[in-house]
Amino acid sequence: MELTDKIKNVLNVQTIKLELIKTAFGKPDVYLANIDPRVLMFWYLTVSILPWFTFNNTILLFIIAYTAVLAVVSRVSPLILTLLGIGIVTELFTIVIVSLVFGGGTFEAILPLLTFSMKLFIMSIASVSVFASMSPERLSDGLLSLKVPAQFSFAVSYGYRMLPILLDEYHQIFQSFRLRGKTPENHGFLKWRIVYYYILVVIKSFYPLMLNIAKRTRLTVEALEVRGFSYSLHNPEAKRVKLSYLKVRTKDYLFILTQLGILLIIWWFGNTFPS
Amino acid sequence: MSNKLPNRDAYTESQKMMIFILAMSLYGLASLFTELLPEFQLGPIDISISYLAFIPLILVILFHPLYAAIGASVGDIIFGKLLLGDFSGIGEVEGFIEFSLAMYVAGLLVRDPTNKRQIGAAAIIGVGIDQMLSSIVDIGKVWLGVEELEAVAGLPESILAIEAFSFVNEMVISGVLFGLIPTLYLLPKLYGKIEPLMGMKPRNPNIKASMTEYISVRFLIVAIFLAFVGLVAEYMAEMDINFAVWEPDFLDQFGDGFIWLPISAAAIIVILIITITVKMGRKKVEKDKWSA
Questions:
Q1: What distance in Å separates the CA atoms of residue A47 and residue A42, rounded to the nearest whole number?
Q2: Which chain A residue shows the shortest CA-CA distance from B183?
Q3: The domain boundary residue, chosen from B151, B171, B206
Q4: Chain A residue numbers touching B161 (CB-CB < 8 A)
Q5: What ipTM score was computed for the predicted complex, to two decimals?
Q6: Does residue A8 lie in a domain region?
Q7: For residue A173, is it within any domain?
Q8: Which residues of A touch B21 (CB under 8 A)?
Q9: Which of A162, A200, B69, B137 is buried most, with the most CB atoms less than 10 Å from its CB?
């Protein structure tokens, strides 16, 4: 079965680590990656909020096309695009079923629901194209400069260092539970006994992990405090030095102008040919 | 400073940081798994493990509820979304607020970590608040996004049906199977064992909470519930569904003023949220003073 193979691949520790490395190094050569993160966030907010003020399908369709082009330009990973695609198909399926069941056999409800789905779709594709091309480090620095608490950007860098270690540790505990335990011989209806056994092991493995992480957390925080961590977290001077590389340059202004122009054209076009 | 003996509630700055990091790493790891697990989706019906609620529940019960709740939400966003390249902007903010609020309330509800009834109630209420808030947001989105909602036959009912189904589904899977049962199983094992590892004293079950605090928590829950009911009621009113049997009496009794119920419930929510944020802000100012 191809599907089970895929699931096995996805649930592999190696795959997760590779995925992490991929996002960590980002895509520095992509157009959107060189734009200032604050400008990109502002653009994302505009594009995802604007559609909620209109019911004009022409405008919505054009915004979808426009964000889709941007997604292609920023080279969103095929995996995420496939997931989005599956989402759309199930969404359409849902719409048909729902309107058949509740609309009394007529398809009257389909069009308004389609409009609604388009709005949701614009939000998700805009977020994918913006945040996929931005490295998490840049994103957290951008948020920091927008006065998001410094704990958040600390958590991002902490996550990078610790997540692979935590994953390894959990994996080890999980495997040792499996080694000492015994999978049920009788699989039961739809293999429910196996599923139940695995769920039990997943939950039980968290018990030693919680104690281990508690110990490690204490060590980490003590080491951080020795180096004056919470002082630098709240010190405006330290923050200024850290964020000094974020500057709005000419190409960022150009980006704002072009995108504004495109949105205006879409708006004009939608008003001329409404549907 | 020296003449004050440390009491249970007095966590030092670095201990708060420890709680934050602990909750973040643990729940982040858990949400990484749930993010990668396959779901079974059949049209509108979606059966999946959306989160392993027992981890944040245990942490908010054992430690400072606010820091544990915020830590868990941040961990979910960073480990489960951002580091996997699946960050979705506004949606994350929504989830962050819902989940932190729900877990914070659940943590405040438990006074005695050895009392099974309190733990069970907190687990169910915590997940319930989260799911309720997310249903409210979902219904609100449809309301905002679909033009002339009541003109489309069957649409409002179908949205309500989908939301109700997903609410029940989430309560059974995330609330009971992955919330209540593992919490009841793991919490007694961890109580008194995990705190010393982080240099803290376990919570003393004999300390009685001040009544005012408890009332405010209960009030918060009631307010959220009322807002939810109010919103659904408004929504039903909008789409002209008549509960023919009891409608006239009800309206006569309360008159047109009845429509103020949902509005006032919403106002209560807003005021509560503002109070909480102001309180948190004050705490933060104190923290800044200490650390700077």
A1: 9
A2: A203
A3: B206
A4: 102
A5: 0.77
A6: no
A7: yes
A8: 158, 217, 220-221
A9: B69
Tell whether A229 and A261 lie within a shared domain: no
In a domain, A112, yes or no: yes
Provide the residue range defining the domain that includes B197: 1-206
Using the beta-carbon criterion (under 8 Å), do B30 and A23 form an inter-chain contact? no
- Residue A89's domain spans which residues? 29-134+247-272
Furthest-apart CA atoms within chain A: distance in Å = 71
DSSP A199-216: HHHHHHHHHHHHHHHHHH
> How do residues B34-69 score in pLDDT, each as one tens digit?
876 666 655 555 667 778 899 999 999 998 888 899
Claim to verify: residue A113 and residue A160 sit in the same structural domain? no
- The residue of chain B nearest to residue A49, with distances taken between CA atoms, is B90
The verdict on A37 and A129 lying in the same domain is yes
Judge: B199–A218 Cβ closer than 8 Å, yes or no. yes
pTM of the model: 0.75
Q: Are residues B286 and B152 in the same domain?
A: no
- Residue B180 pLDDT class (50, 70, 90 cuts): very high
Beta bridge partners of B40: B47
Looking only at the bridges linking them, the beta strands covering B45-47 and B40-42 are antiparallel
Judged by phi (left if over 0) then psi (alpha if -120 to 50, else beta), residue A129 lies in alpha
Residue B284 has pLDDT above 60, yes or no: no
Nearest CA in chain A to B56: A210
Round to whole Å and give the CA distance between A109 and A221.
Answer: 56
Distance from CA of A253 to the nearest CA of B (A): 22
Domain-located, residue A14: no
- Give contacts of B 195-214 with A, CB under 8 A: 197-199
Give the number of domains in chain B.
2
Q: Measured in Å, how far apart are chain A's first and last C-alpha atoms?
A: 45
